[in-house]
Amino acid sequence: MKSHYLAATAAACLTLSMTQGAQAEDLTLCWAAWDPANALVELSKEFEAQSGHKMSFEFVPWTNFADRMLNELNSGGKLCDLMIGDSQWIGAGAESGHYIKLNDFFDANGISMSDFVPATVTGYSEWPKGTPNYWALPAFGDVVGWTYRKDWFARPELQAEFKEKYGRDLTPPATFAELKEVAEFFQGREIDGKTVYGASIYTERGSEGITMGVMDVLYSFGFKYDNPDKPYDMEGFVNSPGAVEGLEFYKALYDCCTPPGASNSYMGEGIDAYKSGQVALQMNFAFTWPGFEVDPNVGGGKTGYLVNPAGPTGERFAQLGGQGISVVSYSEKQDAALEYIKWFAQPEVQQKWWSMGGFSALRSVVEDPAFAASQPYAQTYLDSMAIVKDFWAEPAYASLLQASQKRFHDYVVAGQGTAKEALDGLVQDWTEVFQDEGKL
Amino acid sequence: MADSAIDRLARATPSSLARRVRGLSDRAIAWVFVTPTILLLLAINIFPLIWTVRLSFTNFAANKPNAEVKWVGLRNYTRILTDPDIWQTMQATAHFLFWTLLFQVVIGFSLAWLINRKFRGNDLLTTLIVLPMMLSPAVVGNFWTFLYEPQIGLFNYAVEFFTGIPASSFSMLGSVTLAPWSIVIADTWMWTPFVMLICLAGLRSIPDYIYEAAEVDRASKWRQFWTMTVPMVLPFLMLAVLFRGIENFKMFDLVVQLTGGGPGSTTLLTSIELKREAFEKWRTGYSSAYAIILFVTVFGLASIYVKALNKVKER
Fold first, then answer.
1. CATH fold for the domain made of A25-141+322-389
2. Which pLDDT score is estimated for B21?
3. Which residue of chain A comes nearest to B168, CA vs CA?
4. Which of B173, B264, B280 is opposite residue A402, by nearest beta carbon?
């Protein structure tokens, strides 16, 4: 009897393990190597426990992220089942067939895009833009904003000196003109026996850095990618007088107020400059903000958060960052990958995502009355997400980006030519790209 | 008489195989041995080269395998050769090549000359000098980035110490005028030991009796150096220049790590530009044409150089 019982138990265990083995998949999620990715690893343990699937992760540093992952997608690689790809990849993802279309899946599982912050749906999910064709679920909302040293701004002696010099209080800048004044004021100043500088801004040449920084300023100076009535007609929009003024402003800010040697700075260099107490102001994506709050040097109330300042006409926009999560069409585990997206879209998971440092784009999370007070930067994040614009998300995004990287770096950092020449050149480069693409 | 190795091998060959081989001529046996190598060479060198030439006349983009591939004739070549940006990268590459070769030859030869004497610690010193070339270019690029930091970099502080110019008043990697020199300095630091080693081999290959004969003839040290040492080391030196020239023409990793091609495009070398065209913009046809132009340039220059090298060796 005992042997029969044992045999039955063993058979049951075997059957159960075989059943589970048939269902469980080993899913690989690809993303950039940064703090939010570490939070996602923690969050995903819940998914593993619930679904039985095992999650693996492939994280690549930001400077190589686009290069590595776009090569992976272009070569039809099967490494990634899920891709949290940059917002600008959505055009190529959709048109080249790298991502699977999610409309039917969303409908079948009650996932509605109206539940997400509209800017993130447009930025991360839709292609063509403005149409209800979804290729990703908004995964991580992000936007360029500014941090400033609240503790330095509060010093009475600095306030008095600033007021005497500029005739106004030393307050967080509301316009770019004010921002430059503040940066100039701090440039080369001795604070606590250390020389500090005005601002850390994006100047990186190799990937997308300087384009993200320049665009973040240009939008509020009147830059537009093309004629709203005639797509890809860029003359007079990309190189409008306002855009030229904006680019001149960015160069002036770089020349007057950045730390020595900041000619190739992006997110990591900005974080280092700010945390080490080198700069008073710092341009960076919102994802960096949770890290500042817990930093021993700049945390604990020493840091203030700013929405991008307004341009000369009062217009105020900010560069969109962030990503959506997509299922890679070359994956052989698409069902399990879709399961992950279904799990990730749940409001309670999104709430937990926010609490762990992930910037949720779900409206029920960010519109919760308690959200604004949940973190010192929460309101700034919300306000910033309401004014976002994004770079081209065309399939030829990489070529468009390379052109702007070169034109902007040549002018801003290398000081070659004029702002007008740089933007005229950019119109010429982008026109060539769209001609090659057959869109012009 | 003892058996030779060939006799022993012949006896060890199975008789069935020996009968088959016996029927083959020497020429056929040579072909049997050479064919696999030739096939491998064709597959991994010649075929890709021919394929690249073919692609260079098309608008093919590797990220759009299903798109229609159009024959564009010489358009890619015309575009490249009339593009001022491409000429700028060529100039940056020429500047980098010329100065790195000059510095590496002068310093490498000088070091070899100094170290080619018998003194205590000679071996240890040689080992220490060759250390930089054993490091990975990525590592070298990374730590030279720190050395060039205006606020904490040792290089800037050394310049301040010797010249009085404030360390944080200049940025080696951020200045348009200094950045091209910053990559020259880093590459020279890394690869001078290589040139030194080759020169050292050349110096040590000169027999002592030649110098003894010169001493007997009362030739001065200066004359010995110019009429004996330099001519006899010259083929070695030219070989080092050839190796370094080819290597530096395709320089990528060190410069990407140091400047990323910036500021602006001042250190954008041809190989970095080619990589961006081919694998970031995915203009495969265009970049194939670019690669062919570079290949022809390097091949042409190297051929002329090798002829000169042979002439020097024959003297």
1. D-Maltodextrin-Binding Protein; domain 2 (3.40.190)
2. 66
3. A260
4. B280
